[in-house]
Amino acid sequence: MSKSLISVSVLLVGYASAQSGMNVGNRQQYDRSMLEHSASNMQKARSIAYFNNIDCRYQINAPAGHYIGISFDTFLIEGKNDFVSVYDGPEIDESKLIAKFDTAEADLQSQSTGNQMTLWFHTDRANTGKGWFANWVAKKVLPPINQFGTSGVVISPNYPKRYDSFINQLYNVRVNPRSRVRATMEDFEVEENFDNLLIYEGMVQEPRFLVANLSGARGVKWDHTFAGDSFSMKFASDRAVQQKGWRMSWAQV
């Protein structure tokens, strides 16, 4: 696992790499030449307001086979008019927009699907603030957990110990053809509203096949018989709070 952090206040453009682990910036827009900033300089920078009328691009590169999780620990900008947009991949492409943050009241965390993430910080000509401070981490892509048979048990990573931050784990379960499968949640404890177990009918994880979205402790008594011979799941967590997770049994019926 690789991790680093990026910070903005007087920085106009930043470029960071999980492989180098450096905190860098440049005052020429979209220029990737690097200027190192020590921790002491970054601490001083956070006490100074950022500039008006700037567009700053930050690109994060992680090693191949990883995805990126990012969270903003400090977020002091002019609400609504100044914002940070987060994109999946190396470009500012609205079709790849993951999140847009313009207030500290939002859940200031996000994940990429691949090993690159791009941030765009925009300010208008009016008011400014002290800026923002973000931590990011490169997480190794986990292979799907596949089970086939007439019965079994699936668990969250590390169960019954706490799962990790920014988990993104897929599960596929299949019984014999022309049979049905029943799943029963035996134990369930995750951070409510922020960590979720999405359960789908079949192997296609699209909204129209979503059967349940479990979070908090409400899923303890969950029990469901699927229409077909398979189901799939995705478990995702954020950075903030990790719990012991969950345990589910399944059986052919």
What is the compact description of this entry?
This is CUB domain-containing protein. This protein is mainly beta. Helix content is 3%, strand content 47%.
Straight-line distance between termini? 41 Å
Helix content: under 10%
CATH level 1 class label of the largest domain: Mainly Beta
According to CATH, the homologous superfamily of the largest domain is: Spermadhesin, CUB domain
Mean pLDDT: 82
Annotated CATH topology of the largest domain? Jelly Rolls
| Total number of distinct structural domains | 2
What radius of gyration results from the CA coordinates? 21 Å
- Largest sheet features: 7 strands, mixed
Q: Give me the number of helical elements.
A: 1
Assembly classification: single chain
Instruction: Give start-end ranges of low-pLDDT stretches.
Output: 2-46
**Annotated CATH architecture of the largest domain:** Sandwich
Q: Give the DSSP E fraction (strand runs of 2 or more residues).
A: over 45%
The secondary structure category is mainly beta
Strand order of the largest sheet: 4-3-2-5-10-7-8
Strand tally is 20
Helix and strand string, N-terminal first? EEEEHEEEEEEEEEEEEEEEE
The coarse silhouette is elongated
